[in-house]
Amino acid sequence: MVWGGPVRERRVLKAGHSSIAVTLPKSWAEAMHLRPGDAVVFDQNDDGTLYLRPAPSTGSSHPPQPFSVHAALFPEAGQLERVVAGAYRAGHDAIEIHSDEPLNPERLEELQSAARRLLGLSVVAQDPHRVVLQSFIDPSKYALPQLVQRMKMILIAFVEEAERHLNREASRPGLRHVSLAEETGKVHALLVRQLLLASRDWSLAKMIGSPDPRQLLVWRVVVQSLDELGSHLDELCRSIGQHPAEFRGHPFARGLAGFKDVLEAVVDALVHPSLPKACEAYDAALELRRQVEDLPVRVSRRGGSENSPGPRGGEALRQAVDKLVGMAEVAVDRAVAGGEPGLSVGAR
Q1: Alpha-carbon distance 124 to 3, whole Å?
Q2: Cα–Cα distance between 4 and 253 in angstroms, integer?
């Protein structure tokens, strides 16, 4: 759908004695498979604009067909798990894996693993030739701002785990680090699922915190940035945990200490758009990037090659801070696009 195209005006027509009507564009009606007599649903925004979509079909008592996958098409280890995750993110509630040959224990475990890694997904039926997974997620119960806040808390926990290693409170990466990585993947997958479902149902977009569906694209950028940020912090935490002596007593720790505050400020500005707040978060992110860029490349006092754990951890922090700067830029854009009081488009 093109949002930025020219406005196509249509005249309001009289329909009957007291009603008025407007015709629908033929191309849109054909694309939506609308016929005379079909029902449509209107959703009204706070600014008076209307969103129009075909009404859900109520004439059929049959549930939607599951997303069907033939296991033989994905013979390599891990492929079925990725397909299941993709179907989940795309919004499918039921996913059916079938096979002409009996599924071996490794394939069955792969499907069980896929269910464990995705929120609300369970194996509900299983026989030698067929496995059915079902999502029990109610999309209207998971708002985008709350899920983004949850991602923020997981990322802060990553930083705190890294600080524990720097302060000699932990010897090496353990179960907590693994659980944080798994939780990041679960929340990210649910966020992507919510966005894709909302892009097909504008009333859902409004329910989960995006009254203007055009903002879903902005949320998609935020969600992708959070996922990449999690990957960088995962690498950072892993590097420090495996080789803490390379980092202790180094200025590197100062950049890590300021990271949590900046992350809090950036996410707050994204969830609660405010131009002063967004600009302040952006300035803080830029200052953190300057601090991190000034850190020595070589972390170990004993030296080391560019492939040593220290430099890899330092680069992970730099990349994480770069992501924060990008997210802060998006926060500024959101505040400006929201038409916040005191902003005047075109003012001099």
Answers
A1: 41
A2: 46
Report the CATH number of the 13-54 domain: 2.10.260
The C-alpha angle with vertex 287 and arms to 281 and 292, in degrees rounded to 5, equals 125
Q: pLDDT per residue over 90-125, tens digit each?
A: 999 999 999 999 999 999 999 999 999 999 999 999
Q: Which residue in 31, 86, 92 sits closest to 64, CA to CA?
A: 92
Residue positions counted in the chain: 348
- In the block, residue with structure tokens 């997974």: 133
Q: Is CATH 3.40.50 what the domain over 67-135 is classified as, yes or no?
A: no
Task: Report domain extents, the chain.
Answer: 13-54, 67-135, 141-337
> Do residues 186 and 130 lie in contact, with contact meaning Cβ atoms separated by under 8 Å?
no
Q: Three-class SS of residue 302?
A: coil
Q: Are strands 67-70 and 94-98 parallel, antiparallel or unpaired?
A: parallel
291-309: per-residue pLDDT in tens?
887 665 444 444 444 444 4
b/e sequence 285-310, b meaning 16+ C-beta within 10 Å: beebbeebeebeebbbeeeeeeebbb
Q: What is the 3-state secondary structure (H, E, C) of 139-151?
A: HHHCCHHHHHHHH
Question: Which class in CATH covers the domain with range 141-337?
Answer: mainly alpha
Q: How far is CA 311 from the centre of its chain?
A: 29
Q: Which amino acid is at 94?
A: A
